[in-house]
Amino acid sequence: MPGPSRLRTRSIVAALLTFVGALLVGVAFDRWYGESLMERERERVRAYVAPYAGAIEGVFNRHVGRLAGLVAFVDAQPSVSSMHAAFPTIAEGLRAAAPGLRALQLNRAGRIVATFPMADSARLLGYDLLSDPRPEIRGDVRRAMDSDHMVISGPSALLQGGVGLILRQRVSNVRAGFPDLVTMVLDLDPLFEEADGAAVPKSVRTVLLDRRGQALRGDLGDVTEPTMTPVRIGDGDWTVLASPVGGWGAAVADDLRPTRAASVLITLLLTSLAFGVIGRQEVLRDAVDDRTHDLARANDELRRKGEERLQLEERLLHSQKMEAVGTLAGGIAHDFNNLLTAIVGFTQLSEQQVSALQNAFAGSAESDRLTELRQDLTEILKAADRASLLTAQLLTFSRRQTVTPSRVNMNGTVHDIQRMLRRLIGEQVTLVTEACEQPLPVMADSGQLAQVVVNLVVNARDALPNGGVIRVTTRALDIETSSDAPWPGLPVGQWVLLSVQDDGMGMPPDVVARMWEPFFTTKQLGDGTGLGLSTVHGIVTQAGGHVYCDSGVGRGTTVTIALPRLAHTFEAVTEPALIAARADGEVILVVEDEAGLRRLVSEILRRKGYQVRVAQDGTDALEQLSAGLAPALVLTDVVMPRMGGRELAEAITERGWQLPVLFMSGYQAGEELPDDEEHAFIGKPFTPEALVTRVRNVLVRS
What are phi and psi of 72, to 5 degrees? Predict the structure, then answer.
């Protein structure tokens, strides 16, 4: 006869086997029954959504009928003048019957020739849709012009403001001078409000997706395993996603609850004896396991938050460091520009004196020595120009550089910074430049264009840790038809191409897709900010250009920028002519704390016939003005000890003295200095001719 221990063991085993068997049967039944209930619930949700989808289709089709009526109106007009005369009346009638109809337009050859309401006509008439910066708009307009079917754009941003749909239909009988397209602009919200009469019950959540899968109404996070009901919209489908509030499980929970309760009751009845013996132990073990799991999860959460805080601290330190470096760079550039102003100014004054001496000693041995001296002075000016480029780069880094688009030769930009590029990439990397023989003129800021080249070359260098070759090429590209474009989205026209190619490791597609995003970088924290390529993209786009990348793992990377080519070539650069017009003896007060600059500016102005008074800072200048000095112009530096130029100008204004003020500063922008009839600005470094011209212009203007 088995002992109590063995009997207890058998009882437990039997109870467990019974429990497992009953549980398996109950789970299988619950799953089958739950799936049946959820399928029934899906059919119910589809039935709720179908009228709503049909209502959206009906509202849209009514608008399509109005568009067809506009096409018929254009076809029926006997002349262009009669069409334009009757168009506002027809458009007003169509729009009055449709609250969601935003605007009606007539187009010819891609341009808007008529629009209603008339309030938008000043901004929209003549607008060339084929030159719209959005490629989807240009593509849809071309499709509508080439197709007999209606073409729908959007939802997208509208020229009139807001977001809506744009319906375009080609006119069936295109005649000379008549429109070839009619356009209808629809607001989305009124369209949806009109369809809300067939709204689904509040127990069902819906999300409306457009043909691109983007949510037009609702939040994708509100639906789980949704049903999908198509909505026929023109030549494509929208989709209504729907699921019960709280999910499918909650929707069938009430129906499952009785069967689950019965299964549990049966299982408990069959295993009550066994669970009566071991139930307390199981409950205790489960409680311990749950508590252990909670503690482990809390520990993981604390560790994760600690890591996040450490990362945030590192990013903050890096950001503060970059801000400090930017401030330091801007200050260095400011002081360096003061030095450059003195170097350039005194050198050009010396060059003018040497030129005069050459004319006086023409044909003598002294003339040859003066020629050599003038060549030396020219080299000093060239070095100063290169130093000025360096300060411009520092100001760009510190975001204090003025953006001034001008005619720039792409070949010249690459040539001018070759030496700097070779220093940047190091000895392990070979730099090869292949410039087009013809000039490649573009309209861009020369400093920003150089920054684009530098950023691309530095990025290519970082892809060559073991050395390699970087190839920089420039060429012209003429695109006569869209099929000739080497890249999608590059419009017809004349372009200048700059390509930077490396034979490095290349990038996978997912990295290429995100390479232009700000702050996206594959480098270690501290090695890169993720702003280099996004800056390139922004500069090129602002200049009306395009950026393309061809890369693959193991085959290197080629980045190409395309900028519009100007129609005419560059004119030869000549020496700037000296200012011929002399002064009429006006008194100018020069305020500058740097003694060398003060003497330079004074000498330049005296040689042009001005009477000069000097002050070493704003306080000194204010004392002279208060003592009765009445100059025709105050020429002042901005940053000075005791009182700066800005404070001096404010003091002059407060005292009611009508004196024009010309500011000088090594910063190129960011100082928020006024520029009106009584205030003007000239950036350092400047040439004597530039200073005299600016002074004369301010005096004439005031």
Answer: -65, -35
Question: pLDDT tens for residues 330-347?
Answer: 566 667 777 777 787 788
Residue 160, domain extent: 25-262
Rounded to an integer, what distance in angstroms lies between the CA atom of residue 214 and that of residue 156? 11
Residue with tokens 């006509």: 121
Asked if the structure places residue 62 within a domain, the reply is yes
How many structural domains does the chain have? 4
Percent of the chain with pLDDT over 70: 83
Angle at 564 between CA 561 and CA 565, to 5 degrees: 110
Cβ(652)–Cβ(312) below 8 Å: no
The answer to whether the beta carbons of residues 33 and 256 sit under 8 Å apart is: yes
β-sheet bridge partners, residue 683 = 665
Asked whether residue 363 falls in the same domain as residue 455, the answer is no
Q: How far apart are CA 287 and CA 128, in angstroms?
A: 72
Side chain identity at residue 319, one-letter code: S
pTM of the model: 0.36
78 preceded by a cis bond (ω within 30 of 0): no
SS3 (DSSP) at 112: strand
Q: What is the pLDDT of residues 541-598, one digit of tens each?
A: 888 899 999 999 988 999 999 999 997 544 433 333 333 345 678 999 999 998 888 9
377 vs 375: CA distance, rounded Å: 5
Q: Which of 51-60, 252-261, 329-338, 516-525 has the highest mean pLDDT?
A: 51-60
Where would I find the H helices in 97-247? 121-124, 135-146, 188-195
- Secondary structure of 209-258 as H, E, C letters: ECCCCCEEECCHHHCCCCEEEEEEECCEEEEEEEEECCCHHHHHHHHHHH
Residue with tokens 């109404």: 217
pLDDT, residue 574, reads 38
Q: How far apart, in whole angstroms, are the C-alpha atoms of residue 666 and residue 515?
A: 35
Question: What gap in Å lies between CA 683 and CA 666, rounded to an integer?
Answer: 6
Residue 318 pLDDT greater than 50, yes or no: no
Alpha-carbon gap, residue 37 to 255, rounded angstroms: 8
**What CA–CA distances, in Å, run from 496 to 283, 439, 546, 550, 564?**
77, 10, 11, 18, 6
Up-side HSE of residue 577: CA atoms within 13 Å toward CB? 3
More confident residue, 179 or 369: 179
600 vs 347: CA distance, rounded Å: 10
User: Is residue 569 assigned to a domain?
Assistant: no
> 480 vs 442, 485, 561, CA distance in Å?
19, 8, 19
pLDDT in tens, 354-387: 777 877 777 677 777 777 787 777 878 777 776 7
- Let me know whether 551 and 425 are in one domain: yes
> Do residues 437 and 325 both lie within one domain?
no
Q: For residues 334 and 395, what is the distance between their CA atoms, to the nearest angstrom?
A: 8
Q: Rounded to whole angstroms, how far apart are CA atoms 334 and 567?
A: 37
Cβ count near 680 (within 10 Å): 21
CA distances from 203 to 45, 222, 223, 244 (A): 10, 12, 12, 6
Q: pLDDT at position 302, please? A: 86
Residue where the block lists tokens 């089958």? 32
Mean pLDDT of 600-620: 93
Distance CA 90, CA 614 (A): 74
Radius of gyration of the chain (CA): 39
Q: DSSP state, 517?
A: S
Please tell me whether residues 655 and 623 are part of one structural domain.
Answer: yes
